[in-house]
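User: tokens in, sequence out, please.
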């Protein structure tokens, strides 16, 4: 079933307001010496008024105003004029010109980010694509318009888009979704007290009921819509409602009422010079006449409809009239053939339906089996990952415990012994009588070496078991560690942010070891002289980079990642569910970047 009003809901929403426009006042402003802005606004209002009442005047007035807007570099007014000229082109059947004007308007308004003016143009494009049956592109533009109306909290706009996009789902034969959208539009409009929008929602819902052959409900909804439109004196919408009532009554089989409503619709359409509505009405009248067995009258209506379609689209051929005449002369004979074919088709559909049902059951069983299999595989994979994580945790805890044991042995054993040796040597120095200055210098060098060894043992033990990490946060611990390494041969810089607040101690220790490993690689293997460390904590987690100016290595060579150092870094970061990247090349240093969610 064709319902012509579904193509133009947005425009008809403004018909009542436009009917109240005082064109003489607008022309008076346009021809006055008032400022440019006032004159241009009046011109746009006049073109908008003409876009539904006098298509040619809208195009002529709009084209003239475009020249003025361009001279004044007023791109927004150009976009508005293009919008309204496009609407006039659309109703005049010049769809290619309509599309051209709409797209030019969209281009300007998107650049200006003028969402309030942009949403209606998206809606016009959607209707144009709906007209040409490019339904996916129509929905795409409806979504754009609806997103803007939602952002602007424009209830009327949202209600309109629900109505408009529902038509697309009618074309897709998804009547449930279409009716759902019309019902949602009705509720929004009723809550907002928008009676005109309520009338269009009622009309659209009636259209679905006609398709579903619920003619009583369709008639009730259409009469409610007609009552609202008559109160608003919206002649254009009244004509459309008459047309819809004619279609509904034709489907119901109440042919006198169908003829009455379609004739009333055509009277208004003729006064408005709206040929497409007339064409649809003549097509419906022809169907009524055919059902009544009056094939001559049906032929006459089809001929009128064809003449109007030729003027609109220019695609129908003149021989169509003769073909229609032949068609209706043989209609009764064809009807018998059609009935026989329908019986055979019903049998075929029954067999196909049974086969399809069996196939569907088989597919469902197969899908259930695959789902069960996938679930079990997922559970197994999850368990494997859990066990791997437990194993990694155990290895890392064992490694950390061993580090702490060695650090204590160094500090409490070797460190204390070295300290005692230094004390004894110092006491020996005060007791011995040197025979020469060289003997004293040799002993002092020995004492100095022992002292430096004590410091080195202490430094190594602190690195292996950082007291700073036990007492302070990760940032302080890293800074303390790097400060112990900085010397004339290695300039290290540390930058931390957001680490003042402590987090999981295990994660802090793992990250500390990652930094240690990176620094160790830079010193021992890369021969770096400068080292930059940056650690930042934000709402997404902890991100860090360790950059050196060392020899670098080929990251494409997988053999480089077989070593313990890089493997330890990767393993520790993966343990924390993080990611790590290595950026390096021979001769240009290395950057290690990691991110860990906390």
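Assistant: Sequence out:
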């Amino acid at each position: 079933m064709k319902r012509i009003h579904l193509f133009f809901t947005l425009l008809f929403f403004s018909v009542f307001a436009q009917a109240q426009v005082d064109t003489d006042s607008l022309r008076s402003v346009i021809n006055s010496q008032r400022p440019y802005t006032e004159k241009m606004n009046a011109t746009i209002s006049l073109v908008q008024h003409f876009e539904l009442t006098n298509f040619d005047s809208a195009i002529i007035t709009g084209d003239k105003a475009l020249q003025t807007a361009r001279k004044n570099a007023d791109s927004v007014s150009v976009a508005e004029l293009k919008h309204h000229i496009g609407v006039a082109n659309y109703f005049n059947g010049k769809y290619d010109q309509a599309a051209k004007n709409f797209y030019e308007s969209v281009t300007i308004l998107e650049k200006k980010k003028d969402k309030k003016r942009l949403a209606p143009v998206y809606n016009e494009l959607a209707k144009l694509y709906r007209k040409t049956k490019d339904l996916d592109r129509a929905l795409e533009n409806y979504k754009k318009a609806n997103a803007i109306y939602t952002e602007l909290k424009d209830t009327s706009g949202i209600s309109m888009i629900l109505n408009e996009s529902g038509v697309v789902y009618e074309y897709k034969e998804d009547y449930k979704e279409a009716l759902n959208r019309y019902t949602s539009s009705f509720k929004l409009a009723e809550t907002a007290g928008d009676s005109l929008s309520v009338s269009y929602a009622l009309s659209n819902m009636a259209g679905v009921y006609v398709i579903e052959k619920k003619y009583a409900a369709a008639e009730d909804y259409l009469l409610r819509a007609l009552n609202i439109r008559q109160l608003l004196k919206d002649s254009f919408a009244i004509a459309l409602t008459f047309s819809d009532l004619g279609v509904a009554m034709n489907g119901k089989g109440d042919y006198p009422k169908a003829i009455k409503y379609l004739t009333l619709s055509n009277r208004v359409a003729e006064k408005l010079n709206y040929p497409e509505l007339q064409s649809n009405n003549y097509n419906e009248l022809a169907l009524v006449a055919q059902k009544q067995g009056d094939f001559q009258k049906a032929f006459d209506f089809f001929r009128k409809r064809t003449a109007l379609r030729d003027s609109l689209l220019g695609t129908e051929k003149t021989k169509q009239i003769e073909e229609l005449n032949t068609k209706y002369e043989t209609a009764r004979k064809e009807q018998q053939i059609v009935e026989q074919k329908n019986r055979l088709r019903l049998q075929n559909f029954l067999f196909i339906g049974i086969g399809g049902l069996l196939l569907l059951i088989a597919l469902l069983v197969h899908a259930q089996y695959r789902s069960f299999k996938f679930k079990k595989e997922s559970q197994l994979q999850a368990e494997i990952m859990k066990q791997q994580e437990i194993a990694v945790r155990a290895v890392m805890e064992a490694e950390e415990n061993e580090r702490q044991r060695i650090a204590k042995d160094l500090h409490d054993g070797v460190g204390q012994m070295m300290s005692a040796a230094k004390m004894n040597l110092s006491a020996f120095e005060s007791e011995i009588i040197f025979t020469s200055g060289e003997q004293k210098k040799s002993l002092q060098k020995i004492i100095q070496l022992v002292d430096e060894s004590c410091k080195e043992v202490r430094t190594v033990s602190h690195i292996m078991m950082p007291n700073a990490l036990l007492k302070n946060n990760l940032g302080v611990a890293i800074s303390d560690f790097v400060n112990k390494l900085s010397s004339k041969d290695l300039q290290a810089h540390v930058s931390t942010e957001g680490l003042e607040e402590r987090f999981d101690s295990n994660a802090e220790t793992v990250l500390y070891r990652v930094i240690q490993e990176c620094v160790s690689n830079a010193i021992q293997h890369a021969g770096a002289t400068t080292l930059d460390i940056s650690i930042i904590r934000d709402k997404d987690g902890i991100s860090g980079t360790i950059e050196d100016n060392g020899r670098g290595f080929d990251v494409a060579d997988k053999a480089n990642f077989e070593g313990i150092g890089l493997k330890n870094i990767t393993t520790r970061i993966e343990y924390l569910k993080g990611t790590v990247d290595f950026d390096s090349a021979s001769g240009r240093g290395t950057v290690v970047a990691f991110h860990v969610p906390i």
